[in-house]
C-alpha cells in the first residue's frame, strides 16, 4: 500500500502555510501576518465604514470595468497572506482567480480596528508598498483620520497625503479622479 502524496510541496513551508490557512474551518476568513495566523472578525461599525467607501467608489469602479471586494492577496516569498478590507481590481483579473498580488490592484483599503490598528498602519503599509499596490488608503478609526499612500517602492510609499481628519474630503488620483467623502466614517 503506497502513501498518497500531499497536495502541496512539504519541503516549502511558505506554500504549506498558505495552503493550510485557506482550509481552516471555524472562521470565515483568516490571514497570515508575518507568519502569524490571524482570524478576521470585524464589527458592524467597521463593516459599515467599508460599505460607505464601496458606495463612494461604485460609479468609478463600474466605469473602469473593475470590481471591489476583500479577496485574498498573496505576497510570494513571504509568510504573508492578506485579506484587505477592500480592494479594487480589474474584472478580467478577478474571474476565476484565487489570490491576486498587490500590484494587480488599483487600490487597497484597510480600516483599522482596536485589535489590528498597528498591523494596518505599519506592517501592511510596508508590505503593500513592497509588493507594488499603487494606492493604499488607511482609514484609521482610532485616530479618526484617513491617509492615502502612493508611489510604492521597496522601501515604502514615497508619497503620503494625510493624515486628514474625518470630514475632510480626500482626493483619489487617476484612475479614480474623485473626492472621497470621509464625513460619514
What keywords describe this structure?
disordered N terminus, six-stranded mixed sheet, tt1808, chain A, two-stranded antiparallel sheet, 25% helix, alpha+beta
Give a structural overview:
- The chain has a single domain (43-180), classed as tt1808, chain A.
- It is globular, with a radius of gyration of 17 Å.
- It has helices at 13-21, 44-63, 91-94, 117-130; strands at residues 30-33, 36-39, 66-69, 73-75, 80-82, 86-90, 107-111, 135-140, 145-153, 156-165, 170-172, 178-180.
- Strand 9 and strand 10 (156-165) form a beta hairpin.
- The chain is an alpha+beta fold.
- Strands 3-6-7-8-9-10 form a six-stranded mixed beta sheet. The protein has a two-stranded antiparallel sheet with strand order 1-2.
